[in-house]
């Protein structure tokens, strides 16, 4: 006890005080990092709510004017903006639904089912991650054109019905689930699909929510393939449509800021709606790992 008291008095700071100081330092770093990360998004909404016609101010505005002039000009002067939002929402939701179904089924097969060359096939599937997406654009375009889907939103949906990352994510998560639950269900007479539907799927909700967030955000922000596959303005996604708002000789930055701000809202709402399950999936994965 004397040694402990001496060590505390010689340093001049008790251990609880040191811990509080360390916590304040961590919170300060997190606060600064959060401000830096969120400032571009904040600046986007500030400019969207501030009347701008030609060139944005060189000094970033810190407080919006709270005027809807840019949004009114966007919705009034852009013929297909609402259709672009509908197209993007439809594409993102349909692809996300396909991913949840197919990636979970494939992840379950690779994680729990026993079949010849399972590990080799899974390694081949993972190896496709090393292929840049730009390499597949030409064959993908040729196949899509052969199917008569060019300038159709299904040309964007069908190539994205499954993803290697999603299969890997679900496989890694399903591997952590105890096999005794499946064996108990089979003993009770459940079919293989019944095991998957009644046992695996309810336990995979956190992982599926995380996969849904990743898939929705990626497909909502996708630009290159929709730009190639869609030609008519009424078929554009929101990213392609907002990019085409830029004029050849003059750019109305107010409309572009308003379009980008409105395009970011569904993504923010989607993340906030599923963040509980996303954080739960990260936490459970960390504990099981």
Spell out the key features of this protein.
mainly alpha; globular; 289 residues; 2 domains; MetI-like fold; 14 helices
Account of the protein in words:
71% of the residues lie in helices and 0% in strands. The protein is mainly α and 289 residues long. It has two domains: 13-69, no CATH class; 79-244, MetI-like (MetI-like fold), CATH 1.10.3720.10. Helix 2 packs antiparallel against helix 14, helix 4 packs antiparallel against helix 11 and helix 8 (164-175) runs antiparallel to helix 11 (205-220). The radius of gyration is 25 Å and the shape is globular.
Short structural summary:
This protein has 289 residues and is an all-alpha fold. The chain is 71% helix and 0% strand. Helix 4 crosses helix 8 (164-175).
Superfamily (CATH H level) name of the largest domain? MetI-like
N-end to C-end Cα span: 40 Å
Number of separate structural domains: 2
Helix content: over 70%
Uncertain spans: 1-10, 285-289
The amount of beta strand, in percent, is under 5%
């Amino acid at each position: 006890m004397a040694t402990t008291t001496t060590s505390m008095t010689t340093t001049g700071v008790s251990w609880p005080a040191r811990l509080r100081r360390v916590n304040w330092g961590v919170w300060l770093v997190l606060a600064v990092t959060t401000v830096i990360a969120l400032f571009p998004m904040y600046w986007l909404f500030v400019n969207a709510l501030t009347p701008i016609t030609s060139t944005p101010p060189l000094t970033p505005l810190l407080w919006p004017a709270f005027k809807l002039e840019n949004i009114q000009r966007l919705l009034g002067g852009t013929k297909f903006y609402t259709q672009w939002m509908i197209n993007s929402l439809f594409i993102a939701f349909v692809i996300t639904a396909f991913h949840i179904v197919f990636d979970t089924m494939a992840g379950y097969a690779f994680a729990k089912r026993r079949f010849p060359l399972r590990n080799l096939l899974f390694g081949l599937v993972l190896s496709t991650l090393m292929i840049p997406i730009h390499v597949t654009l030409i064959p993908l375009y040729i196949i899509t054109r052969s199917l008569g889907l060019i300038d159709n939103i299904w040309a964007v949906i069908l190539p994205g019905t499954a993803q290697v990352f999603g299969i890997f994510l679900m496989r890694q998560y399903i591997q952590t689930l105890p096999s005794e639950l499946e064996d108990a269900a089979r003993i009770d007479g459940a079919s293989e699909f019944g095991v998957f539907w009644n046992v695996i799927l309810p336990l995979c909700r956190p992982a599926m929510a995380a996969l849904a967030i990743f898939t929705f955000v990626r497909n909502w922000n996708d630009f290159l393939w929709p730009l190639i596959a869609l030609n008519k303005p009424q078929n554009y996604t929101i990213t392609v449509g907002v990019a085409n708002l830029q004029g050849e000789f003059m750019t109305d930055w107010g409309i572009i800021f308003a379009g980008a701000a409105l395009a970011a809202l569904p993504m923010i709402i989607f993340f906030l709606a599923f963040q509980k399950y996303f954080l739960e999936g990260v936490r459970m994965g960390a504990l099981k790992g």
